[in-house]
Amino acid sequence: MTSGHEISPSVIDGADDVALPFSVEALDVRGRVVRLGPSVDTILRRHGYPDPVARLLGEAAALTVLLGSSLKFEGRFQLQTKTDGPVEMIVVDFEAPDRLRATARFDAARVEALGGAPLKGADLLGQGHLAMTIDQGSEFSRYQGVVALEGQSLEEAAHQYFRQSEQIPTQVRLAVAEQFANGETGYRAGGLLVQFLPQSIDRARLADLPPGDIPEGHAHFDAGAAPEDDAWVEARSLVNTVEDHELVDPEVSSERLLYRLFHERGVRVFEAQAVHERCRCSQDRVLGMIRSFSPQERRDMIAEDGRIGITCEFCSRRYDIDPAEAEIDPAE
Fold it and tell me: Domain of life of the organism in this record (predicted)?
């Protein structure tokens, strides 16, 4: 990470589709602000998702970019949920350094049955799990962290993930909105992630998780007994003042938001990272996928017209495949 520069109150840079790293040395915190405009709008409009589903997938996209943009190597960060809720599955891929794609699978009837009232992510997710996977390629082992989803929001699930898997004090804020500008409506998503990373490991130590049932006569576990570092308490309290509109309003840039939060302590920003909506699918990848099936399964894919039709769940691109290209011999 380069040396960066301190933010001036006159800065009005409001670029979309970027992740902006920052640090507040006085509080020993680092983080990123993400602003998604055309990239997330393209993803959400392409499939015509109902508004509640679009907002949930937008939150997942912002969270994925917050985490994936920290990768220091060429690789892929994936966020995936599987639940029994109206939104059965979410998959968001971030391929370093800048490629984003996302999709959701949902039960339209169950989403509609929830009514027109504003819904939270927790209303749509239900019971299941959230998995975060880092894939550095075939030469390296994949890392995966899993969090149980039990009616909490994506923000709350992210906090649980960092408490259990990373043991890093972390605060996350996510927001999605549909806004009207230049005669058109469009979705915008934003996120803020702040982590307490002091040089002393002991300063960052979290309270232990509850040990389970405690024998009679022994002291009960008190999650609040371990005092939190004052610097982290201050940083977390400031992050909790962030309102949704500040994360998505094009008039409130990432720099302005960071200046409001941390100017008294001195906040430095670093080179912004661009984010682009890009799918990983290709003719070669589709052919490779088809060839991974058994000969009989491949023959079953052939339609009445003698072709194989495959539609990418992410970008909706349609592939028309000649069975011969997929090494299928109908005579077998």
Answer: Bacteria
Judge if 85 and 159 occupy the same domain: yes
Could you give the CA distance from residue 162 to residue 115 in angstroms, rounded to a whole number? 33
**Facing residues of 24 across strands?**
29
Q: Which amino acid is at 207?
A: A
Instruction: Provide the H-helix boundaries in the chain.
Output: 38-46, 51-68, 108-113, 121-125, 154-161, 201-204, 230-239, 244-248, 254-262, 283-291, 295-300
Q: Per the structure, how many domains does the chain have?
A: 2
Range of 244's domain?
15-208+230-277
> What's the CA gap between 144 and 152, in Å, rounded?
20
What is the Cα–Cα distance from 27 to 240, expressed in whole angstroms?
16
Closest by Cα among 116, 132, 114 to 124 = 114
In a domain, 215, yes or no: no
In a domain, 244, yes or no: yes
Please tell me the pTM assigned to this model: 0.86
| Residue written as token pair 């002091």 | 198
Bridge partner residues of 174 (DSSP)? 191
* 8 Å CB contact between 173 and 63: no
The angle subtended at Cα 314 by Cα 153 and Cα 297, nearest 5°, is 115
Domain-embedded: residue 68 = yes
Residue 326 maps to a domain = no
Long-range contacts of 3-8 (CB under 8 A, 24+ apart): 3/268, 4/268, 4/269, 4/270, 4/271, 5/268, 5/269, 6/266, 6/267, 6/268, 7/255, 7/258, 7/259, 7/263, 7/267, 7/268, 7/269, 8/259
295 and 200 inside one domain: no
Q: Tens digits of per-residue pLDDT, 244-278? A: 999 999 889 999 999 999 999 999 999 999 999 99
Q: What is the dihedral of CA 65, 69, 70, 73, to 10 degrees?
A: 140
